[in-house]
Design goal:
Elements lengths: L7 H25 L11 E6 L3 E4 L5 H20 L14 H24 L3 H5 L2 H14 L1 H4 L23 H10 L1 E5 L3 H4 L1 H14 L6 H19 L25 H10 L1 E5 L3 H19 L7
Antiparallel strand pairs: 1-2, 3-4
């Protein structure tokens, strides 16, 4: 916090922590001096429950107090060695970022030769290698399941990677390109330009392209609008354009759902999806393994 406001807060936190430890030590020390002489009667503290249940002022057990002393000593030593006193970094200079970078460097040194070996092989060859696929699967479960699911079948707004339907192409090179540079898919909102009725007309025409139950009159009117506006991305036949990432509207695979309500929502409000670029974070070797694993999911290898 001191980095954003002032140095006062670093000092404040340090003082609170030190005063707290010293105060607890004094309290513990003062209570440890409570002893009973032989034959002396223990007095109550004045608390009584259920008429005859009284709280006596017995001295604390020695073993119990020693545990507290040990805890206080441990806490003091910890705060000298590690961060905890405001802006004081501890004499060891430990940080979570530093530990993460050290562990990552150790892992890179251990596994980089493997990454380099597989990087020299084409994706189909790597996809057929059980060791490489096991590594690719672990990478997928670490970085990709949050969006595409543990089974890689995706969810609403996130593509299924186990079929053969691809927005930007499913060749090994295209998959690796997608993971490397990421993708940004944007469907503009047409609600304001079309109006409610025209949106419904276009939605029904889109439904007709994939053989869904639709209103024929609306579809006939929607075809004209589709040809004039939507065909620029989805093509005159509605089969999409992988160069632009425009989906095929003639099948029954829908990223957000293929009901009339959902299609109307998509046309009205548009869609905005982004797949992050992983090259800088993962490096070429890991991206290559991930691409091999993903390609294998839909090409009958043992990647699953």
């Amino acid at each position: 916090m001191s980095d954003f406001v002032s140095d006062f807060w670093g000092v404040y936190i340090a003082v609170v922590v030190i005063v707290g430890i010293v105060g607890l030590a004094y309290l513990l020390f003062s209570q440890s001096k409570t002893n009973l002489k032989k034959g002396e009667k223990v007095e109550t503290v004045g608390h009584v429950w259920d008429d005859d249940l009284e709280e006596y002022n017995n001295p604390l057990p020695r073993w119990w107090m020693m545990l507290f002393y040990i805890t206080l000593v441990f806490g003091a030593v910890y705060l000298v060695l590690y961060p905890g006193l405001g802006t004081f970094k501890g004499i060891r200079g430990w940080t979570s970022v530093g530990q993460y970078n050290e562990e990552r460097s150790q892992a890179e040194a251990k596994y980089q030769p493997l990454y380099d070996k597989f990087l020299k092989q084409d994706i189909q060859t790597v996809a057929a290698n059980p060791e490489a696929q096991a590594m690719g699967k672990r990478l997928f479960q670490t970085y990709c399941v949050q969006c595409h699911g543990s089974d890689a079948r995706g969810a609403k707004g996130f593509p299924n990677l186990t079929d053969n339907d691809w927005l930007h192409g499913g060749t090994p090179q295209k998959i690796e390109e997608t993971i490397t540079i990421g993708r940004h898919g944007q469907m503009p909102a047409w609600g304001a330009a079309f109006g409610e009725e025209k949106v419904k007309d276009v939605a029904n025409y889109v439904m007709s392209l994939s053989g869904k139950k639709h209103d024929a009159d609306r579809a006939a009117r929607g075809k004209e609008t589709f040809s004039a506006v939507c065909a620029a991305c989805h093509g005159p036949d509605g089969k999409g354009n992988q160069a632009m990432g425009a989906p095929n509207l003639t099948d029954n695979i829908w990223l957000y759902g293929g009901t009339e309500k959902t299609i109307i929502e998509t046309i009205t409000n548009g869609r905005n999806n982004q797949m992050p670029a992983w090259k800088d974070f993962l490096g070429e070797g890991k991206v290559h393994l991930l691409a091999s694993y993903v390609w294998g999911l839909s090409n009958n290898t043992k990647a699953q």
